C-alpha cells in the first residue's frame, strides 16, 4: 500500500489502543523481571501522542514521526523512552519529506529505527530486549511484497521467544538466571507496535 | 495499596511541592519541570553537580541538593528515569560557567536519558561531563552485560564530588575525583518486604513470612537470590563477604561505611545492623573513619537495608568530612 | 515477624552499641546502663536536659543527644518506660552543677519512673525539675483521666529547652521555656499499618486494606477511631481540624510545623502530606516559619504520620532556629 | 497461718510460675487496650526475682519484700514496675523486722501496698486499673480468719469486672469507649498475685 501521514497516524492510534489495553499486562511482565513500570511508561507516552494527534495534523510521515519522537523522548522516560524515541527520530530522517511511503520505504524507515535502538541501547540479539523483536523481524521482511499476516505472526513469535532467554541487558540482567521464564516487556510492547502496523496494512492495503 | 497520597498521577509533583514548601530557604523548583535546584543556583564559576533518577528513592535525590553536595536533582516518575528534556533543564539551571557534572546511576534508562541531555547541553555550549555509578556487587560485573547497578554508594559520590566542586575544582578534576569514589565504593542490599509502585497498585513480588531477598536493588525488584530469613549477624556477614570479595580490603585500611535503610526499616534495626557490621569490620582490622546510618537511598516502602563501603584516600576523606548543608545530609 | 535483629532480649543493647559505634565523636554510653550522653557530658555550669522512654521510637531519644538539644537519653525496653535507676544514672551523668531538667512524655509509666528517679537525685543533692509533654489532641483532655499523651511535639520541647540550656539559662528558666512549648504544641497522628513489638512477635492490631486508624499514639496501639482509607488531603484536614479546634489558631500567627513519619512511611508520602498541609495552613493565613519533615518520633515499623503545630513567640522562634548538633537533628 | 520469709518466697515463686504461664495472655490483653508489653514486663521482673531467690535467703518477710521491691522497680519498667515495686516497698515497711507475719499482718502489709499503688498511680476504683483488684479485695478481707478460697474467687471476679469498665487511667484511657470489652492486663496479673497467695495459704496453712 501507499502510506500517507494519516495512515500512519491510524496505525499509531491503534498502537496506543493496544498499549492501553495491555497496560497492566506489560507492567506485570516488568514486575517479574524489571521494575514494574513498562506499561505505565508506554501508556503515558501514547496518551500524550494521542493528544498531539488531536491537536495537529501532519503533511508527511516524516513530520509525524518527528513529532511523535519528541513526545516519546519527553514523556515515556526509563529505558523505553529513549529507545522508542530514537527509533522514531531516525524513522523521520529516513522518511524525509516524502508525502507518502511505499511498503518498502516504510520498512526501510523501520530499519533505520532498529539501528537507532541498537546504537542507543548497545544490545544485540539474544540479550532479551526489544532488539530481539526489531532485528530479526526486519531482517526477515525487506519490504517487497510483505505478507502482513506472516509479519504479525513473526512479531508474536519473536516476542514469545524472549521468554526462554537469559537477560544480558536492561534491568532483567540483574536477575541473572532468574530472568529466564518471563517474556521481556519491551519485546511485548514492540510486538504490539508491529502487529498494529500489520493490522493497518491489512485493513487499508 | 496503602499510601499517603492524593492523585497517583500527581504524586511526584505534589512531593516536589511539599519538599520545596518545607525548605523554601534552601530549594527552588525550576518552573514547569521536575527539577529542584539550590536556592542560589547557578553558583557563578563553580562546577555544577547534577544527579537524579526515578522518584521513590527519597531523600535521593532532592534531599541532597544544597551547599557542598548537589546543585540540582531531577525527579522522574516513580522508578522511571527522567527524560532528557528535564535533565537538560537541570543542567541549564545550575550551569555557572564552569560546566556541569552528571552523576548517573548505572541503569540503561538513566544512562541513555542523561546522555541525550548532555548532548543537548553540549549543543548549546555548556560543558558537560558524566560519571556512572555502579556500586552494587550483587550483580555480576561483566563486559557482556550493562554491568552493575548504582545504589546507595551514589550518596558518597554526591557528597565527595559536591565538596570538590564547592572547593573550586575544575570540571575535569571533579569528574576525576568522582571516578575515584566510584572505583572505590561497593554496596549490597537485601529486603524483607517488597514495595508497591503507586501507579501499579500492587507489590513487585511476594515474600513469605520466613523469606528474604538478597541482592535487592532499589527499584522494588526481586533480589538475585531468595533465602530463609536470617539473623542480622548472618545477613551482615553475607553482605560484607560479597563486598570484600570484590574490594579485597586489607587490615589497616581506612574506610567509610553506610548502613542504608530501604524506606520502611526502623532506625532501631539499622543500628542493630551497624552494631553487627562494626564487629565484622573490627575483626578485619579496618579503620572506620565515618559511619552513616539512616535512610538515604530508598525504594518506596521496601523494608531492608544495604551496606556500602568506601575505601578512603586523603582526597576522599577530606571531601567526605567537608561541610554539606542539604535537607537530608548535613556535615 | 520480620526484623533485622539478632536476639530479641539484646535488641536495645545492640541498638545502643550500633548507635554509639556510628557516632563515637558525638555520643557515649554510660557503662552498664541504657543511657546515652553527649561525649562531653557533663557540661560544666550548664543545665542538663534529659529525656527518654521506651525504645522503638528512634531516632527518639538518643538521636537528639548533642549540643543544643539533649544531654542524655534513657532507652527502656521496647515501648516500656525505663526504670528509675536508669533515669537516675542519666541525671548523674549529665549534671554539670546547674541542675537537670527531665522532659517526660505523659504516660503513667514514664511519669512514675522519672519522678522516682528525680526523688533519688534530689536525695543526692542534684536539683531536678521536670516537664510533662502532652501534645496529642486525639486524646480527650480531662482532669478525670491521666490526660493526653506525649508524641512528636516532644521534639520541639527537646530542641527549644536544649537551646535555652545551651544559652546558659537557669534550671527554672529552662523549665519555664519548656512549659511554654508544651502549652503551645499540639499533635495528632494516624496509621496505615500496625507494628510488632519484637518480644511480642505479632502486630498490635490488624487493619484491612481499605482501613486506617485515626488518633494513633506511638506505641503500636490502635487509634481512637478506625475509618476507611482516605486521600492525603482528607487525612491532613482531619488532623489539622482537630489540632485547630484545640489551639484556635488565628490568621497571621507564626507557627512551626512537623510532619512526622511513624517509622515505615516513605519520605515521598511525608512530602505529599506537607504539600497538602501547607495548602491548609495558607488558607488559614498562618505563617510557617519552620517546617520539619521526616521520621523523628516513630513507632517501630508503623506506617503513618503525625502532624504537629507549635505556636511561636520570640523565645521559641529564637531557640528553634538556634544551632543543634545531634545525630538526627542538625540546625 | 504464720508466714515465714520462706513461705512468702514460696508464694512469689508460684506467682512467677503463673506469670510465665500467662505471659502471652497478659501481653495479648495489653495489645488490645495498651501497648502489648505487660506480660513481657512482668515476666522480666519475676525472672529476675527468681534469680534473686536462687542467690539469697531472707531472714524476715520485710527483708524479702524490700529486695523484691528493688528488683521490680529496677527490672519491670513501664507503669507496672513502679506500681508493683512501690507496693512491695510499702509492704516491707509494714512488715518491719518481724520474723513471721500472721494472716492479719500480711493482709495489713498488702493494704499498705495497696495505698502505695493508689498514691503512685493516682487512680481510683472504677478506672480500669489494677486498683480495681487491689482496693475492693483488701476492703473485703481484713485478715481475721481469711477464707482463702473466697479470697481467690473474689480476686478473679474483680479482674473479670474490669472488662466492662471504660478506662480512665493508664494507656487504655487513650482508647476511650474502645477500651470497653477487654480485661485490664494489670488487673489480670494482680489476680494471679493474689491467687497464688491464696494457693500458698491453702497448701501450707
Ligand atoms: N540496552 C537495551 N537495549 C534495548 N532495549 C532495552 C535495553 N534495556 C532495556 N531495554 C528494553 O526496555 C524495556 C524496559 O522498559 P521500561 O520498563 O519502560 O524502562 P526501565 O527498564 O527503565 O524501567 C525492556 O523490557 C527492554 O525491552
Ligand atoms: N495510674 C495507674 N494506677 C494504677 N494502675 C495503673 C495505672 N496506669 C496503669 N496501671 C496498670 O498498669 C497496667 C499496664 O502495665 P504495663 O503494660 O506493664 O505498663 P505500660 O502501660 O507502661 O505499658 C495496666 O493494665 C493497669 O492495670
Ligand atoms: Mg521498567
Ligand atoms: Mg523504570
Ligand atoms: Mg509499655
Ligand atoms: Mg503495657
TrEMBL record, chains A, D:
Gene Ontology process terms (BP): glycerol catabolic process
* Catalyses which reaction(s): dihydroxyacetone + phosphoenolpyruvate = dihydroxyacetone phosphate + pyruvate
What Pfam family is a match for this entry? Dak2
Q: Does the keyword Transferase apply?
A: yes
Please report the stretch or stretches of sequence annotated as the DhaL domain: 6-199
One of the record's GO molecular function terms? glycerone kinase activity
Q: Which protein is depicted?
A: phosphoenolpyruvate--glycerone phosphotransferase
From TrEMBL, chains B, C:
Reactions that this protein is recorded to catalyse? dihydroxyacetone + phosphoenolpyruvate = dihydroxyacetone phosphate + pyruvate
Gene3D superfamilies associated with the record: Dihydroxyacetone kinase, domain 1, Dihydroxyacetone kinase, domain 2
Keywords annotated in UniProt: Glycerol metabolism, Kinase, Transferase
InterPro entries hit by this protein: DhaK_1, DhaK_dom, Dihydroxyacetone_Kinase
- What are its E.C. numbers? 2.7.1.121
Involved pathway(s): Polyol metabolism; glycerol degradation
- Positions the record marks as coiled coil are none
| BP term (GO), one | glycerol catabolic process
Give residue ranges for domain DhaK.
7-329
Citing just one GO molecular function, the answer is: glycerone kinase activity
Which positions, given as ranges, span the membrane? none
Would I find Transferase among this entry's keywords? Answer: yes
Q: What does this protein do?
A: Dihydroxyacetone binding subunit of the dihydroxyacetone kinase, which is responsible for the phosphoenolpyruvate (PEP)-dependent phosphorylation of dihydroxyacetone via a phosphoryl group transfer from DhaL-ATP.
The record's subunit annotation is: Homodimer. The dihydroxyacetone kinase complex is composed of a homodimer of DhaM, a homodimer of DhaK and the subunit DhaL.
- Protein name, please? phosphoenolpyruvate--glycerone phosphotransferase
Query: Which species expresses this protein natively?
Result: Alkalicoccus luteus
Lineage of the species this protein comes from: Bacteria, Bacillati, Bacillota, Bacilli, Bacillales
Amino acid at each position: 500500500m501507499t502510506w500517507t501521514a494519516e495512515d500512519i497516524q491510524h496505525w499509531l492510534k491503534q498502537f496506543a489502543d493496544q498499549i492501553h489495553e495491555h497496560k497492566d499486562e506489560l507492567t506485570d511482565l516488568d514486575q517479574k523481571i524489571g521494575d514494574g513500570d513498562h506499561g505505565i511508561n508506554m501508556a503515558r507516552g501514547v496518551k500524550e501522542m494521542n493528544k498531539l494527534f488531536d491537536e495537529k495534523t501532519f503533511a508527511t510521515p516524516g513530520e509525524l514521526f518527528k513529532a511523535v519522537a519528541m513526545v516519546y523522548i519527553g514523556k515515556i522516560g526509563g529505558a523505553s523512552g529513549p529507545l522508542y524515541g530514537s527509533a522514531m527520530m531516525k524513522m523521520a530522517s529516513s522518511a524525509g519529506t516524502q508525502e507518502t511511503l511505499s511498503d518498502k520505504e516504510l520498512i526501510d524507515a523501520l530499519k533505520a529505527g532498529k539501528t537507532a535502538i541498537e546504537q542507543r541501547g548497545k544490545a544485540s540479539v539474544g540479550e532479551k530486549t526489544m532488539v530481539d523483536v526489531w532485528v530479526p523481524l526486519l531482517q526477515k521482511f525487506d519490504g517487497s511484497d510483505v505478507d502482513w499476516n506472516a509479519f504479525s505472526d513473526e512479531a508474536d513469535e519473536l516476542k514469545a521467544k524472549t521468554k526462554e532467554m537469559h537477560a544480558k541487558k536492561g534491568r532483567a540482567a540483574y536477575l541473572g538466571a532468574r530472568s529466564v521464564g518471563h517474556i521481556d516487556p519491551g519485546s511485548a510492547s514492540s510486538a504490539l507496535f508491529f502487529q498494529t502496523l500489520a493490522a493497518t496494512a491489512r485493513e487499508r492495503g | 495499596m496503602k499510601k499517603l497520597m492524593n492523585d497517583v498521577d500527581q504524586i511526584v509533583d505534589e512531593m516536589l511541592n511539599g519538599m520545596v514548601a518545607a525548605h523554601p530557604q534552601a530549594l527552588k523548583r525550576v518552573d514547569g519541570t521536575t527539577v529542584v535546584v539550590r536556592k542560589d543556583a547557578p553558583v557563578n564559576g563553580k562546577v555544577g553537580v547534577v544527579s537524579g533518577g526515578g522518584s521513590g528513592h527519597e531523600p535521593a535525590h532532592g534531599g541532597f541538593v544544597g551547599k557542598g553536595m548537589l546543585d540540582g536533582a531531577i525527579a522522574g516518575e516513580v522508578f522511571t528515569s527522567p527524560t532528557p528534556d528535564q535533565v537538560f533543564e537541570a543542567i541549564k539551571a545550575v550551569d555557572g560557567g564552569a560546566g556541569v557534572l552528571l552523576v548517573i546511576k548505572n541503569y540503561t534508562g538513566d544512562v541513555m536519558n542523561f546522555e541525550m541531555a548532555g548532548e543537548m547541553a553540549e549543543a548549546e555550549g555548556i560543558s558537560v561531563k558524566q560519571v556512572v555509578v555502579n556500586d552494587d556487587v550483587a550483580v555480576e560485573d561483566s563486559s557482556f552485560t550493562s554491568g552493575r547497578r548504582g545504589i546507595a554508594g551514589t550518596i558518597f559520590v554526591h557528597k565527595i564530588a559536591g565538596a570538590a566542586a564547592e572547593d573550586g575544582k575544575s570540571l575535569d578534576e571533579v569528574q576525576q575525583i568522582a571516578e575515584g569514589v566510584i572505583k572505590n565504593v561497593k554496596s549490597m542490599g537485601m529486603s524483607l518486604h517488597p514495595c508497591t509502585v503507586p501507579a501499579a497498585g500492587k507489590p513487585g513480588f511476594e515474600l513469605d513470612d520466613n523469606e528474604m531477598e538478597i541482592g535487592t536493588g532499589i527499584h522494588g525488584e526481586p533480589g538475585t537470590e531468595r533465602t530463609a530469613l536470617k539473623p542480622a549477624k548472618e545477613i551482615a556477614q553475607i553482605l560484607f563477604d560479597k563486598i570484600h570479595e570484590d574490594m579485597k580490603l586489607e587490615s589497616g585500611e581506612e574506610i567509610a561505611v553506610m548502613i542504608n535503610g530501604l524506606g520502611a526499616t526502623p532506625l532501631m534495626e539499622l543500628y542493630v545492623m551497624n552494631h553487627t557490621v562494626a564487629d565484622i569490620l573490627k575483626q578485619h582490622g579496618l579503620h572506620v573513619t565515618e559511619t552513616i546510618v539512616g535512610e538515604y537511598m530508598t525504594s518506596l516502602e521496601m523494608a531492608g537495608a544495604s551496606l556500602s563501603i568506601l575505601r578512603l584516600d586523603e582526597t576522599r576523606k577530606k571531601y567526605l568530612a567537608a561541610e554539606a548543608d542539604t535537607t537530608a545530609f548535613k556535615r
